[in-house]
User: Which sequence fits this backbone?
């Protein structure tokens, strides 16, 4: 079953909104309600979800706890993934302290930096580790996912090390285009992309 | 001319990659080269750009400086937009110090926080202002865009104030679904969405 990536890219948003409704004690929803909350058409949502099975019933809509479980299975976040965070600057600190990971399938298992002033210091319960130990520590912990918050000039070199260490997915905050071999995934978090998308619609 | 939003959403990525190639001194590119760098098909890129005019030539491809200028015009980042940053925690500090805004159409014009310990302190050349002055300062500066890095529990109340003050676009880092009136845009920066998108493909 080869589902188009554009559909996969929307599933986390569906899961997020369902978890939000669930936290408010709501048990069922509809593609209409989800559409309003997400700014998507209900037809789009129904079509996307129908790729994976019959999750809703005509007239009664979707049972939220069931659909959450299905989406977690599909996205493989019915387990908890370890993350290696590389770069313990302001942004690295913000991510290490971010409460939003909880219950969404991830936790920061290790933080690395090259600055001797930072190595050994704590961020919450994490201790900042020497970037020289990156590869052995990632292998030891069996980590597959990394978040990259190093300066732009260092990002490619760190990425090369991450790939050699067995990292398969990188969430990149550095404003550079990373080169990785086939089979390694990179997604960029670029606030400017989102801002530029909005300015298209904003009046002066 | 009503272009589908999914196409608009890809234009900032095209612009970003063109600026990246331009910084390397490259003058022309092709939809094939852009596709490889972006992980999109060349047909998709050609089709998207053709919505706005004839930017490329068969055989010679796209002239980068010209296409950059066209995309900046379309996305309205041929001007520099002021941004109000609300929340001067770790993430707010990281954003205020972020070098990536430069030359991409934005700068942080004001930073706000409610913490008396933070108000009056500096982040680079910016002074953290009292959130109580949010509305008058936004009006005074003519700011249309805000970035929101306050805790989740405070995000909706701050959003309401931003809307009243005339903000038309909000880039939201808080892990909540913001309610805004029609005509106000919100985009969420949610690292978990991006991580969950990748775990679909990652092997254990």
Assistant:
């Amino acid at each position: 079953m080869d589902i188009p990536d554009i559909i996969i890219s929307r599933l986390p948003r569906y899961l997020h909104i369902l978890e939000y409704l669930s936290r408010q004690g709501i048990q069922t929803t509809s593609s209409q309600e989800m559409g309003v909350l997400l700014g998507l058409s209900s037809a789009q949502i129904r079509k996307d979800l129908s790729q994976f099975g019959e999750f809703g019933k005509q007239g009664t809509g979707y049972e939220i706890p069931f659909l959450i479980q299905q989406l977690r299975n599909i996205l493989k976040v019915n387990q908890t993934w370890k993350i290696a965070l590389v770069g313990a600057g302001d942004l690295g600190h913000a991510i290490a302290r971010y409460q939003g990971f909880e219950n969404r399938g991830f936790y920061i298992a290790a933080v690395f930096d090259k600055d001797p002033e930072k190595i050994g210091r704590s961020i919450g319960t994490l201790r900042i580790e020497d970037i020289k130990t990156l590869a052995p520590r990632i292998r030891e912990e069996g980590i597959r996912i990394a978040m990259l918050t190093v300066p732009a000039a260092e990002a490619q070199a760190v990425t090369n090390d991450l790939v050699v260490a067995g990292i398969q997915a990188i969430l990149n905050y550095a404003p550079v285009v990373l080169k990785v071999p086939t089979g390694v995934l990179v997604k960029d978090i670029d606030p400017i992309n989102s801002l530029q998308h909005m300015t298209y619609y904003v009046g002066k």
Observations:
- DSSP finds eight helices and ten strands in chain B.
- The mean pLDDT of chain B is 93.
